[in-house]
Amino acid sequence: MKVLVSDSLSEEGVSKLSEHFDVDVSTGLSEDELVEKIGSFDALVIRSGTQVTKRVIDAADNLKIVGRAGVGVDNIDVDAATEKGIIVVNAPEGNMLSAAEHTIAMMMSMARNIPQANASLKAKKWERKNFMGVEVNGKTLGVIGLGRIGAEVAKRAQGLEMSILAYDPFVTEDRAKDMGVELTTVDDIAQRADFITVHTPLIKETRNILDKAQFDMMKSSARVINCARGGIINEEALADAARDGKIAGAAIDVFTSEPPFDCPFLGLDNVIVTPHLGASTEEAQVNVAVSVAEEVISVLNGGSARNTINIPAVKPEVMATLAPYIGLAETLGSVASQLLDANYNKIEISYNGEIADKDTRAVTVAALKGILEDAVGSAVNYVNAPSLAKSRNVEVVESKSETSGDHASTIRITLFQGTNTKSVSGAVVGREPKIVMIDGQYVDLVPHGFMIVSNHINRPNVIGPCCIVLGENEINISGMQVGRVEVGGKTIMALNVDNEVSETILDEIRAIDGILDAKLVTL
């Protein structure tokens, strides 16, 4: 079999592939050159340079797997690969320790003004008094996001005898206790922490999670670190806070636009910057190369892959039946997670009707991916979703029943947070997925785009004011479903809208007399 390596890859990875296959290392190929070349290859190994477009995939007659030596897969048309039955894998853990260590290095460099002192001395100045630092011993570190990297940062900070505050809505109190950290809110971290580091994926809920309001709460001695993703911290708000002395400094490795030559940080002496070096260690580059090589070797030799981004191979006759339910389960999981918005400790997936007789393992994995994606973003895939749930001490329970009510088959996903639950059920009507029940109340929703889901009191002059608020803000309502209960009872309303709805507008809706809560669901 033949493997094409089209980006620079660590020699250890190339050597491992060469032990099994005929390896061609050809870097810097244009799209036309790659289209011309790819037809005879069984595997393609890339980093960030190669663009694996639909045109490339269409020309890949023998391709079975694309391996990305790194985390992001933005440069791969995953949908086109899936449609053609090509497995896409990445190496999400290879640079985990490098990113954690870089965070600690940035914190220490910032605390002791090392970059500034280095530049000063190399300019032949002796300015010791200008670079008075602070110790980290005994200080409080706030960690926003306790995934794999955040947890490794917390562990290392504890070795420096720091106290750890943490925010992660999907981490249970039991897990936090095992890690020796105190769970709290972002605002509490902003008020109490001496150092604050972010380690979340960049999703709707985490964009600008540290903004002007949080900087206004911080101690003037606070220092902020971002080695995760540009956009998690509002760059303008951070620059203003550092410039105005609201915080003591910042250390930034990632930016909303890279290279960040127009970024305001570059002109601030109390902000140290590095050019996205979190994964730039010799060990990390070897790790990701070896990891993706092992994935390619396993798949081409008839085995499975651990870090598949798209759906693993399923027999065509099975996929014909399961495909719509895989999509439905992922959607239901995403909706349930966004509606609960909390650190659930149990997931129950119920199969009812004809689907209960099928092998639903792939559907369960899709449900877990949909649920967890709200917490961990693109780091979750169809292979690692079960292990990610397990690592967060989340219990997963499946149940099956031949009874399904009004539909041939239904799937119900219920998330548990102690005695608090959120339940969403769906069915496939024709080939179209629909949400048919939320928290026991019947609805008939085609899930797409944006939905506002609210609980309210069933009485006059509640629904109308909601619509007026949206109309006044030029938000078009494309569909509405209202649960039916007795007058004065609690019921549900779901509005399909054509645009994203800001928190400010949602707050206007929540303030309407009779509205109990309102959340935006994005699909």
Characterization of the model:
The structure is a single chain. With 523 residues, the chain is of the alpha/beta class. It contains 17 helices and 22 strands.
Care to give the gist of this entry?
By secondary structure, the protein is of the alpha/beta class. Helices cover 34% and strands 23% of the residues.
Number of helices: 17
Strand order of the largest sheet: 8-7-6-9-10-11-12
- What would the average pLDDT be, to the nearest integer? 90
Low-confidence stretches: none
Radius of gyration: 25 Å
Oligomer: single chain
Q: What's the story with the biggest beta sheet?
A: 7 strands, parallel
Terminal CA distance reads 40 Å
Output the structural class.
alpha/beta
- Proportion in helices: 25-40%
Per DSSP E runs of 2 or more residues, the count of β-strands stands at 22
Q: Note the beta-strand portion.
A: 15-25%
Task: Specify the overall morphology.
Answer: globular
Could you list some keywords that capture this structure?
single chain; 523 residues; alpha/beta; 7-stranded parallel β-sheet; 6-stranded mixed β-sheet; 22 strands
